[in-house]
Amino acid sequence: MIRKILIFAIVFPSFLPLWAEKPKYQYFGKAYDLSTGKYIYSDNHKEYYNNGKHIYSDIQYKDAEGKVFGTKHIEFDKNAEVPTFKTEDFRDGYIEGADVKGRSVRLFSKRKKEDPLSEKTYTPKTPAVMDGGFDYFVRNNWEPLSKGERLSFHFLAPIQLDDYKFAAEKIRDGEWKGRPALYLRLEVDNFLLKQVVKPFLLVYDVQTRRILQFEGLSNINDENGKSLKVKIVYDYPKEVLEP
Fold first, then answer.
1. Cα(213)–Cα(227) distance, rounded to whole angstroms?
2. Average pLDDT along the chain
3. Is 19 inside a domain boundary?
4. Contact predicate 117/110, CB 8 Å
5. Containing structural domain, residue 106
6. Distances (CA, A) of 52 to 15, 55, 200, 240
7. pTM of the model
8. Reduced to 3 states, what is the DSSP secondary structure of residue 62?
9. Is residue 9 part of a domain?
């Protein structure tokens, strides 16, 4: 039911913003099957900035052979934690996204090419988080999270045309490939749903507050239309981790 809610995904094209012609940063994440360790796909990010502010990102999803099968476009300029975005999977026509205007959000989605587009416009409860906006939620709440405070929020899920109560909290402080890191758990903040939806595990770099690793349900489907269970490891250029 909630299999489409998360991932530290972050991209696809529509809207055609005009703020920048060249990305400031480019990096990628490699996704591996959580059970077998098999390499499945990559998400390839381009971040665009204006006057030092992250305005939007475009992401391409590529299979293990390097073929592009999906895209995302996500805009952070108006609301970084609840961004406007659109995701498309070219293989089956899956679409998921949201248009954000002030506090109002239009969620839209369809699972297959032949399906009609479902949509819903409403004002979500606060605090609210959606899609790649979770990274900004972590950055904006770094101090309480790093001190061990458990933070609850409403995670918007366009594929369900709804939102769900989630909570994030620290697992431990540690290292990740020699870098100081903050280990977090993200889970459904509901006793019954918690029994069937496993937590997402995330690792963030202390210096840059960038995500380094993600474990859990992906927003990318397998050949049967079910979300993959993956570990995504992110690879950044030197200028990103040592700004």
1. 18
2. 91
3. no
4. yes
5. 25-240
6. 21, 9, 31, 14
7. 0.89
8. strand
9. no
